Automatic annotation (TrEMBL):
PROSITE patterns: HTH_TETR_2. It comes from the Bacteria. This is Transcriptional regulator, TetR family. Residues 1-21 are annotated as: Disordered. The keyword Cell wall biogenesis/degradation does not apply. SUPFAM superfamilies: Homeodomain-like, Tetracyclin repressor-like, C-terminal domain. It comes from Rhodobacter capsulatus (Rhodopseudomonas capsulata). Keywords: DNA-binding.
Length: 221
């Protein structure tokens, strides 16, 4: 007599159901999240991560602390959200550097974009600088993987331009480091720059022709 067939596994027989899609944010929720991130940017850029508190951020956002914690579970979560969105914006000009473009134009355009971002986004620049000065505890992996891959890719392009005699033979990594340093300085050390220059000066407007001359001479073959 043939054996009875094995009963079907009731768990395996159940159809797979997709997890429900997250509900879209309401207008009020979007407004509150934007208010929290804007307030956090102000507080973190002024106080640093260690000096900032959830109470300060909630007060600046016009929300109660429990209301803030409804959207973000911790100070670390808010800080990481800001850093991730900032890094995307910060790297966009470098991503736009084209191997097919005229080499000096591409590099000079990148330098000017970085200077303009320092003018328009000083708090974001200081937020990023504070994270780096603290040893990048929340971004070390991103810097070592995503940032390094992008910089290495653009460095290879710059190295190729130099090898072809289109620009002077410069170390591409240190060229990019110098662009970062010479543009973000005007955001990160704004108080010092303005104190030394005195009233009646626009540091960014005055910096652009100087940096144009500096990098044009550096890159000239």
């Amino acid at each position: 007599m043939p054996a009875d067939p094995m009963p079907a596994d009731p768990v395996a027989a159940e159809p797979m159901t997709a997890e429900p899609a997250p509900r879209p944010l309401t207008r009020i929720q979007k407004r509150n999240i934007d208010a929290i991130l804007e307030a956090a940017l102000e507080v973190f850029s002024a106080q640093g991560f260690r000096g900032a508190t959830l109470d300060q951020i909630a007060t600046a956002a016009g929300l109660s602390k429990p209301n803030l914690l409804y959207y973000f579970p911790s100070k670390e979560a808010i800080h990481l959200e800001l850093l991730n969105s900032l890094l995307d914006d910060w790297l966009a000009p470098l991503r736009e550097m084209r191997a097919t473009g005229e080499p000096r134009d591409e590099i000079m355009r990148y330098m000017r974009r970085k200077l303009e971002m320092s003018r328009a986004m000083p708090r974001e620049s200081r937020l990023f600088a504070n994270e780096i000065l603290q040893g990048a505890p929340r971004m070390a992996g991103t810097l070592a993987v995503d940032l390094k891959a992008l910089v290495d890719d653009k460095a290879a392009i710059i190295r190729g331009w130099a090898a072809a005699g289109k620009i002077a033979p410069v170390d591409p990594h240190h060229l990019l480091f110098s662009i970062w340093a010479l543009t973000q300085h005007y955001a990160d050390f704004d108080v010092q720059v303005r104190a030394v220059l005195g009233p009646g000066h626009d540091p960014f407007a005055e910096a652009e022709p100087f940096l144009d001359t500096l990098f044009e001479r550096l890159l000239r073959p």
